[in-house]
Amino acid sequence: MTVQIRLFAMFRETAGADRLEAPADAADTVNELWAWLVARHPELDRHVPAAAVNAQWARMDARVADGDEVAFLPPVSGG
Amino acid sequence: MTVQIRLFAMFRETAGADRLEAPADAADTVNELWAWLVARHPELDRHVPAAAVNAQWARMDARVADGDEVAFLPPVSGG
Amino acid sequence: MPMVELTESPIDPRVVEAAVARPEAGAICTFLGVVRNSNLGRDVGHLEYEAFPEMAMPSMVRIAEVVAERWPGARAAIVHRTGRLEIGEASVVIAVSSPHRAEAFEACRWAIDTLKTAVPIWKKEIWADGEAWIEGVPAGPIEVPD
Amino acid sequence: MPMVELTESPIDPRVVEAAVARPEAGAICTFLGVVRNSNLGRDVGHLEYEAFPEMAMPSMVRIAEVVAERWPGARAAIVHRTGRLEIGEASVVIAVSSPHRAEAFEACRWAIDTLKTAVPIWKKEIWADGEAWIEGVPAGPIEVPD
To answer: Which of B35, B39, C92, D70 is the most buried (most CB within 10 A)?
Structure first.
């Protein structure tokens, strides 16, 4: 009963991991999951992420369910 | 004592020649030289040429001197 | 299906161009994003690009689809590089073909502008004396232009 | 000196692009004019291009010079084909590099628009049942854009 977290680029390097696992009861929403993550990696606190649930764009108040994969994305800079 | 005329594309095919020679006293201006040419190739009469003297853009009232090369250019369609 | 790729290998712009060539297309506009030797006054040694492939791919496919929907007769191909890139290498190549040139330029410009703001890809600059991830713009779903 | 050419041989866009690549250029916009299989509702068999080389060459050089003057840091290369061209072949390739992409797109667009209206080159369409020279616009000196 877990939620998968994926991190990229600056977030990945800051947290020192590209994937993390949170217990399913850690958060009801994307926003709460970010707070759970920041509690463990306070260096992330100054950042404002975009989020995706199961590789679909999601608002920070979107609900998170058991088995979801939630990605937190820094501002993009491709091209 | 002559003026060289150069023709391109539609004008060249209409006149059946890419180079013609006019006597230097055939025309004092580019416009008069065009009239001289049209008199010999009346099929050109419906066209409005741009002109160049010695490979430089020229107005139709520009003067023509002995030894000049005058080019008559149909509307361009490159690219 | 439009040609859309993420690749760790050098991009051949002619392959991208060829993917959009069609007998009815009179114009092809190709954009290359190239790694520059400096940015904001600092000398750049090399770049590293990272993508979230499961989102970046559908996002680039969507850009190519919008090009075909929004500009009648237009087709787009998009290839983005990932991994380590040296100065002068192409990080992204976008080719757009269309019957006439105005649409090719306009759609190609929209495609690269949108890619830079909507596709989950990040670049890190590596200098002689340090490095930093470049923070661009908050990403989100692609909006179809008017 | 900018790369500017008239050629009877197929144009290699890579060579044109390479002529403007520089370590400080982050963007290259390349335009290909391609022979289409139809125009104004008629099936085109092939095209023939004719140039007045003594004027077309300096005219194209001037376009490349204006690009470098008008758009800081921009460089242009221009190659135009002459003679017989088949469907799908490139009649003209223009590549513009610049530090950032906005200038590359804008200068490349200006260069092809200007080439089409100012350079003494003409095309003839050959159909199954006839042929005609295409009458474009009255040509004249190149004007520097604002």
So the answer is: C92
